[in-house]
Design goal:
The protein is of the alpha/beta class and 557 residues long. Helices cover 28% and strands 10% of the residues. It has two domains: 427 residues, Alpha-Beta Barrel (TIM Barrel), CATH 3.20.20.80; 78 residues, Orthogonal Bundle (Type 1 dockerin domain). It is globular and about 80 Å long.
């Protein structure tokens, strides 16, 4: 089992704009509950927390909102709160939730539910207007916000997945992110609204811009492409626009970009036909829907100043979903790498180009479906490869009603498939004692977990990064510094006569816990670099980081 190395990130860990803090604190919420769990990507292609500590996103999918249920599937028979408790207790620290553009716009506009949410009001009295068994079922958005609340209380983070443009059980089969009913502009509007609505709640840490863009050259007008053009079908260009729409509202969110289905072979372009049947010449490299990231080598996604929020997210499945040609042999990890994985997506992590999050992987392992064991073998090989290379992932899926994969539960969502869970469990983030690790700094993951702060420091309060001048040393220095010294160096929070990462670290720690992390009066004056002497806040930390990175020349701003 992979255990992340227990180190405290040093001063070399990169910093980004607005990392870890929002512009204001939600009502009745402490800052560390909502503003210290944002994630970003460092120069080593690792996803790290605001302190530079590597984290491992190991979650699962739970669909329903995308198919017209107006709620998670299974709430028609089981208690939603209890199911979320079980997901946390079983060690899944991230929940990928498929939704539709149509649903988000419905919520944005306050439109009525097109159908009554599939909620058993006797099993879910909390989801009724009256709060009683058999009561009137709430509006779907209100139910969703209960899910967000219960995830937060369980230490589960959420990733929204725009699974389809239109809410429909087969919506995922539509090739592109737009249809004749919902345009690209509608999609951008939905993304922006959602990101803005939750910009001050770090329960929601990521958005998967579009599930499985796909299409082949036999339908050229409906084929997701990947290049540097601005064609309407160009998924790379659309993803950059989608990311910009999200990050303009919340620059702290991770942006998941999936691949496409096909990519032109060397010497060909997107005008090539699907195949030349007289010679059986194939002009494209094929892949699973959304799984082809070959185009990143020549045409990487460009998020500008927010590049540190980008994560590529392929999908991969075994032979029971479709018997791809790389399954025709007695496959091994090496043959899968040679025949498909490496050039399609694995090179991105092996060459430290980008972190990967395997957005979907899963399948049947029971004898009825997998009599020859090939699917189980594939699942095991992929699992072990993801553990070895610290690939983030969300297992498909929690639902039992996924027709070609099954799920983690069965018996109308009432029982866990212990055999399948045993296969997945080694790939969940755990410490040496088998405690599941949340991505939250203050809330442990379920009843069997710990916080990321406890994992790295053994305490509830995060330990600041160790630098050449550590934050703790800096506090002592700041206290000892002469308060009568009139030579203020703006940005020098720790009063060591230089402006570096230790100053930003100390300021952020002070904003989280001013009782534990002290700043002298002189340091407070030096740190107040944004605005007109309005006291220390997150914007001051951002400005200091920009000065360190050379993005601004002088302080104060």
């Amino acid at each position: 089992m992979l255990k992340l190395k227990k180190i405290i990130a040093c001063a070399a860990a990169p910093v980004i704009t607005c990392m870890g803090f929002g512009s204001f604190t939600p009502t009745n919420a402490a800052p560390d509950e909502y503003h210290d769990d944002w994630l970003h990507v460092n120069d080593n292609a690792e996803i790290v927390d605001m302190y530079g500590n590597p984290v491992w996103l190991t979650g699962c999918n739970w669909f329903g909102y995308n198919v017209g249920s107006q709620v998670f599937d299974g709430v028609w028979s089981q208690n939603m709160h209890e199911m979320l408790n079980q997901i946390a207790d079983h060690g899944f620290n991230l929940l990928r939730v498929p939704v539709s553009t149509e649903l988000l716009l419905q919520w944005k506009n306050g439109d009525p539910d097109p159908a009554t949410p599939k909620v058993n009001q006797y099993c879910n009295p909390e989801l009724t207007l009256e709060g009683i068994e058999g009561g009137t079922i709430m509006y779907s958005f209100d139910i969703w916000n209960y899910a967000v609340k219960w995830c937060r209380e369980n230490g589960i983070k959420i990733m929204i997945d725009i699974h389809c443009a239109e809410t429909a059980s087969a919506g995922h089969q539509v090739n592109l992110w737009y249809t004749d009913k919902f345009s690209t502009d509608d999609w951008l509007e939905a993304l922006n609204w959602f990101a803005d609505y939750y910009k001050d709640d770090d329960t929601i840490i990521a958005i998967d811009l579009k599930n499985e863009p796909h299409g082949k050259a036999d339908v050229p007008d409906n084929m997701a492409r990947w290049d540097d053009t601005k064609d309407p079908q160009n998924w790379k260009y659309a993803a950059e626009r989608g990311a910009a729409s999200v990050l303009s509202a919340n620059p702290n969110l991770l942006i998941m970009v999936e691949g496409v289905e096909v990519y032109p072979k060397e010497g060909y372009d997107w005008t090539a036909p699907a195949i030349e049947y007289t010679t059986m010449t194939e002009f494209y490299y094929g892949a699973w829907w959304g799984g082809n990231l070959r185009g990143v080598r020549e045409h990487p996604v460009d998020l500008g100043e927010h590049q540190s929020q980008l994560v590529y997210s392929p999908h991969d499945y075994g032979p029971l979903v479709y018997n791809q040609k790389w399954f025709d042999k007695d496959f091994t990890t090496q043959t899968l790498l040679d025949d498909y994985w490496y050039d399609t997506w694995a090179y991105l992590c092996e060459e430290n180009i980008s972190p990967l999050l395997m957005g979907e992987w899963g399948g049947f392992i029971d004898e009825e479906h997998d009599a020859d064991g090939k699917n189980t073998k594939w699942l095991t090989l992929l699992r072990d490869y993801m553990i070895e290379h610290r690939i983030h992932h969300t297992f498909w899926c929690f639902n039992e009603n996924s027709g070609d994969t099954g799920g983690l539960v069965y018996d109308n969502f009432g029982k866990w498939d212990e055999d399948k869970y045993a296969l997945v469990k080694p790939a969940l983030w755990q410490d040496d004692n088998g405690k599941f690790i949340s991505l939250d700094h203050t809330i442990p993951l379920g009843k069997n977990g710990i916080t990321v702060s406890e994992y790295y420091s053994g305490s509830v309060t995060p330990t600041p990064p160790t630098t050449q001048t550590s934050a703790s040393t800096a506090v002592t220095e700041a206290t000892a510094a002469s308060e009568t010294d009139a030579d203020i160096i703006y940005g020098d929070v720790n009063c060591d006569k230089s402006v570096d990462i230790s100053d930003a670290v100390l300021l952020k720690c002070f904003l989280i816990n001013s009782e534990k992390y002290k700043i002298s009066e002189k340091g407070k004056t030096a740190g107040d670099v944004h605005g007109n002497k309005n006291g220390l806040n997150a914007q001051d930390a951002v400005c200091i980081q920009k000065k360190i990175l050379g993005m601004i020349k002088e302080l104060p701003v």
